[in-house]
Amino acid sequence: MEKIPVVQEHTPPYARDGKFHVRLTEGRFQTLRRLSSWPMIALFFGLVWVQVDGQPWLLFSFAQRQIILFGHALSWHDLPLLAGLMIAGACLLFFMAVAWGRVWCGFACPQSIWTWLFIRIEDFTEGRASERARAEGKPLGGTRLLRRIAKHLLWIGLSLLTALTFTGYFIPMRELVSDAVQLQLTAGVSGWLIIMAGLTYANAGLVREKICLHACPYSRFQGVMFDRATRTVSYDTRRGEPRASMRNADLNSGDCVDCGLCVQVCPTGIDIRDGLQAACIDCAACIDACDTVMTKLNRPTGLIRFASEAQLEGECSPLIRPRLAGYGAVMLVAFGAVLYGFTGTTSLLVEIRRDRGALFTQQDENTVCNHYRVKVEGFTRQPEQVRVAVQGPGAFELFGPELIDLTDNNASWLSYRVCAEDFDLPRASLDFHFTGQTGSASKQTTFLTRGI
Questions:
Q1: Which of 31, 264, 338, 354 is most buried as measured by Cβ atoms within 10 A of its Cβ?
Q2: 382: which DSSP letter?
Q3: The pTM is what?
Q4: What's the number of domains the chain is made of?
Q5: Residues 138-160: tens digit of each pLDDT
């Protein structure tokens, strides 16, 4: 019986005491990664400043109890739509995982994007990976100490900017910055900013790849989605083995010259030549590094490439297959349901409560009145006035503000009295109608008489 082969873990190059330094590389996939990540960074830092008619374009406002989503105001009752949007996004993530592995992690995940930003700051301040590795463990002093301080200051600055921007999606950014400049931030907001900045600093600067390996659930259940046709970053063993350096190569040697560049550029410190691993985020840095070496040696590129298990074994790898089609169908249905839900969002939110002081009052021998408290919230970007009316099986008369101004959207409770004459039924259904410029709403309540 054959024994299960044991894969020996390689110590990453430039590693000291478990710490390794990532070597930056260039190539078509790294260019593609920047083309996808830099617009996302620009949107994250830029959208928070965009205003339309003096209102933020994207804001989750606890104070106003509403969500402004790309200029469209939603009530907190519409939160299931955001949950549905997250579910649809998860379906898209699963669809991509079945087709191309963890390309989301390598090209668009915020953890990866911010890690690369911190690595570039480290490369800029303390030098290339080989220089940092040689200096690791030596006493800090002189220029090296200043570089280390500059690195951490830039890390802290970027972390604070990230925390401030993220908070700006819940508190209007201009208001937040003004309070910060004037040192008028509340203790709660200040604490939140410190916590968010600390988490960003730790995740992207100190912990890095350990988040992908130990904390991210996606790295654990991705294997359930993969099949033999899933294209992930793979090393072509049949072509590359047996590996040998240029000095020791012979006619039986493979194309891999064992230069180790594929490991040096890996942000998670793995050796892709050991096969698919949970820590691999499919960033394709090893592909670019290996292709550069192959080009210099006048050998075909693609020793490391996006390939499926079937392709590596010389089999046909179909693009469309049942599992991929299933995830695609679920994704389309989920996005369709969310888009349909956005067509029926709440423009007016109404709450009606009976006055607990008395079920009804007797005005005179023939007139009975009921007392109500009414609150109306508007979820539109335009100033609006709402007209209030009542309708029921009898002649009802409404006493209270006929027009409610929702300009400030203060959502205060207003008192109303509804009276009816010569009403013989013990109770009846009473409809409150609210009509505004952009929408209308109705709320049903009960009208009680002395006959109850």
A1: 264
A2: S
A3: 0.81
A4: 2
A5: 888 889 999 999 999 999 999 99
